[in-house]
Automatic annotation (TrEMBL):
Lineage of source species: Bacteria, Bacillati, Actinomycetota, Actinomycetes, Streptosporangiales
Descriptive protein name: glutaryl-CoA dehydrogenase (ETF)
Keyword Transit peptide assigned: yes
Reaction catalysis annotation: glutaryl-CoA + oxidized [electron-transfer flavoprotein] + 2 H(+) = (2E)-butenoyl-CoA + reduced [electron-transfer flavoprotein] + CO2
InterPro entries: Acyl-CoA_DH_CS (IPR006089), Acyl-CoA_Oxase/DH_mid-dom (IPR006091), Acyl-CoA_Oxase/DH_mid-dom_sf (IPR046373), AcylCo_DH-like_C (IPR036250), AcylCo_DH/oxidase_C (IPR009075), AcylCoA_DH/ox_N (IPR013786), AcylCoA_DH/ox_N_sf (IPR037069), AcylCoA_DH/oxidase_NM_dom_sf (IPR009100)
Originating species: Nocardiopsis composta
Start and end residues of each Acyl-CoA dehydrogenase/oxidase C-terminal domain: 242-389
Length: 396
């Protein structure tokens, strides 16, 4: 083989050329979201993280709506109808900036909007989905409770019939966007099983309290929802919701976004470490010239690229209609763990500088502790995979 036919050297930023197999449309979406994230999110996220909030969530929601990422995988009602890989790429680029910002989009589109799209009446869809897609209305998804996390079937929130109305009582916890939402999708136990309800903000008996003193996912609004005798008309019920499978199917959509988002967080940490290793000098040379640092970079680039390949394969399966929820469990389990390893290693490459918000690594590192817990803990997804390969459930 002559020199002119040799393959080019690997690109450090995409070592296995994962993005080479993207379609032109997928590349356009990747580039548009990346440009938006670099211009409007990255310059502000450290300040938002330090402040422990998003200062203008409604303004940000409108910008996300203009970008077209809210419910972008849904069909109709002002949604883009994009493919799974395209949606995944958007999540990757957003979480490369911050997990909290990807959560904003995931909760709006993959949880609240998906629940209405899948289980809502035509009237509910027409009322909420176009406004939510445009970022003119914000939604949240109330499933988790203070004493019911990994076992949502044990929820204590109840909905009882009173004439033609429903009356809801209970508490939901760790609800992203809860205190700024215009509508909450609330899941409650009824005599007919678990059902979903649309609870508009301002409904008497419904309050949303912002959770403070978080040390992770700080550039995100997290809330407690309290329902005290909340009376809703019959049409507040999501008529297609039946049983625990309904909210879990929405969670699977959001978990798919995490598969991609974690790959983005890992990429950002690796990129920061690679740049730092080339510019930080000790003992008269860049630290990237030392064997131990090169081993760290090698470990990181392997994790980053394997996470990217995992996300892409699961995305292709989803676009082909062949993605089982165990595939998504595999992706969340593998990619979040990989991202955590990369973030910790990148922090060590940065030394003491790695604990400051001047660099993104400590922010990603602590955010990923939450990502490993929400929408199915590492342990739950391990058991999901274990059940898939053995045929035996170890959950109970």
């Amino acid at each position: 083989m002559t020199d002119q036919h040799k393959a080019p050297a690997p690109d450090p930023a995409d070592f296995l050329a994962v993005d080479r197999s993207l379609t032109s449309e997928e590349r356009d979406i990747r580039d548009a979201v990346r440009a938006f994230a670099d211009a409007e999110l990255a310059p502000n996220v450290a300040e938002w993280f330090e402040a422990g909030t998003i200062p203008d969530p409604r303004g940000l929601a409108k910008r996300f709506g203009e970008l077209g990422v809210f419910g972008m995988h849904l069909q109709g009602y002002g949604c883009a109808g994009a493919g799974a890989v395209s949606y995944g790429l958007a999540c990757r680029e957003l979480e490369a900036v911050d997990s909290g910002l990807r959560s904003f989009v995931s909760v709006q589109g993959s949880l609240a909007m998906t629940a209405i799209h899948k289980f809502g009446s035509e009237e509910q869809k027409q009322e909420w989905l176009p406004r939510m897609a445009a970022g003119e209305a914000i939604g949240c998804f109330g499933l988790t409770e203070p004493d019911s996390g990994s076992d949502p079937g044990s929820m204590r929130t109840r909905a009882r019939r009173d004439g033609t109305d429903w009356v809801l009582d209970g508490t939901k916890m760790w609800i992203t966007n809860g205190s700024v939402a215009d509508v909450a999708v609330v899941w409650a136990a009824t005599d007919e099983g678990i059902r979903g309800f649309l609870v508009p903000a301002g409904t008497p008996g419904f309050t949303a309290n912002t959770v403070h003193h978080k040390l992770s996912l700080r550039a995100s609004i997290t809330s407690e929802l309290v329902l005290d005798g909340v009376r809703l008309p019959a049409e507040a019920l999501l008529p297609g919701s039946k049983g625990l499978g309904s909210p879990l199917s929405c969670l699977n959509e959001a978990r798919f976004g995490i598969v991609w988002g974690a790959a983005g967080a890992a990429r950002a940490c690796y990129a920061a470490a690679l740049d730092y290793a080339g510019t930080r000098e000790q003992f008269g040379r860049p630290i990237g010239a030392f064997q131990l640092t090169q081993r760290k970079l090698a470990d990181m680039v392997v994790d980053v690229n394997q996470a990217g390949l995992t996300a892409l394969q699961i995305g292709r399966l989803k676009d082909d209609g062949a993605c089982h929820h165990n595939h998504v469990s595999f992706g969340k389990f593998a990619n979040v763990a990989a991202a955590q390893r990369v973030a910790r290693t990148a922090r060590s490459v940065h030394g003491a500088n790695g604990i400051t918000l001047e660099y993104p690594v400590i922010r990603h590192m602590v955010n990923l502790e939450t990502v490993a817990t929400y929408e199915g803990t590492e342990e739950i997804h391990a058991l999901s995979i274990g059940q898939a390969v053995t045929g035996v459930s170890a959950f109970r």
